[in-house]
Amino acid sequence: MLWPVAHRQIVLTIPKMLRVYFRYDRRLLGDLCRVAAGAITRSFRVLLEEPDSEPGLVVCVHSFGNLLNFHPHLHVMATDGGFTPEGVFHPLPTMSLARIEELFRHRVLGMLRRKGLLTPERIRLMRSWAHSGFNVNAQVRIGADDVTGRENLARYLIRAPFSMNKIRYDSAARTVIYKTKMVAGPNRNFEIFDPLDFLAAVTSHIPNRRSCLVGPLHQEGLRGRSPGVPGLRRCDADRRVHRGTAHRARHPRAPVAVGRSPATAGPARGAARTCRARVPALGGVIFTGRRGGGGLPRRSAHRGSACRRGLFSGSRPG
Fold it and tell me: pLDDT category, 53, cuts 50, 70, 90?
């Protein structure tokens, strides 16, 4: 569910030097999502001068570049402003990309240092660069009344890593040609692969088991209610999930009733209720959905389409 307010697409990229860490430890992508969400939220609060405001954010991990190269970056669909605890939406007076980029760089480097992947010397070297390699782009803005624009942007965020229409096999040369739009860096619009190298490039974008590439952070896309904010529930507050979260992460069938007192938390079999499950790859990110009385299906966290979109929908036969 997207709120009828203006939205922006915010794209955050990292330097090539750091991409190798995310290639061989995909769990870092979840940390990158949380770092980006925190940097955007903090910057929005400063711009709005509302320390308790929360933007609506849907963060999508893209591991691919235009030429099928491994290029981990984030696409964020964000409300162009924030919600106060009273439920009032305040639009951004201006968009300061420099503030977001600086905070994003600072937090990413700090996260990698705490994990023992970067030394203080390497961080000082990267801070001395004239061009940091970090980049934030927020040129795409969708108006509050543009329902089609919001839908098209959401579709763009969950697009596949490659298109079958761009693939051509040259039987004479025994090569695979992937043709796309012009890419500024190498200044070409195609890539030629050996067949095995092409398969390796494609499979490098397959996410880890039980990982989700799209997640609603904070209010956007979440159902339910929290005090004072009609129809919203803060994802950060949902981190105080009931005991047994680790058990439910290992056993996705176990449902959690949301918005019900313990006395009414057990509806009759087959009745609809709201369930949530913690996805290990994104840490504290909570995905919500309407399920039947049986809760989440046994293998819903493994289905590619469901994982790619962060959706747990449908019902199990009674």
Answer: very high
> Which tokens in the block code for residue 108?
């990413």
pTM (predicted TM-score): 0.68
Does residue 288 lie in a domain region? no
Report if residue 231 sits inside a domain: no
Q: Quick check: 212 and 287 in contact, CB under 8 A?
A: yes
Q: Is residue 45 part of a domain?
A: no
Residue 178 carries which DSSP code?
A: E
Beta strands in 149-242 (DSSP E): 167-170, 175-183, 188-193, 214-218
Task: Please provide the size of the chain in residues.
Answer: 318
Q: Is there a domain that residue 55 lies in?
A: no
pLDDT of residue 268 exceeding 60: no
Encode pLDDT of 54-108 as tens digits.
999 999 999 999 999 999 999 999 999 999 998 899 999 888 888 899 999 999 9
Q: Is 229 left (phi over 0), alpha (psi -120 to 50) or beta?
A: beta
Domain that holds residue 193: 163-203
Give 315-318's long-range contacts (Cβ < 8 A, gap of 24+): 315/270, 315/272, 315/291, 316/291, 316/292, 318/269, 318/270, 318/292, 318/293, 318/294
Q: Which amino acid is at 227?
A: P
**Cα-Cα-Cα-Cα dihedral sign, residues 9, 27, 218, 298:** positive
- Total domains, the chain: 1
pLDDT tens per residue across span 290-317: 333 333 333 333 334 434 444 333 333 4
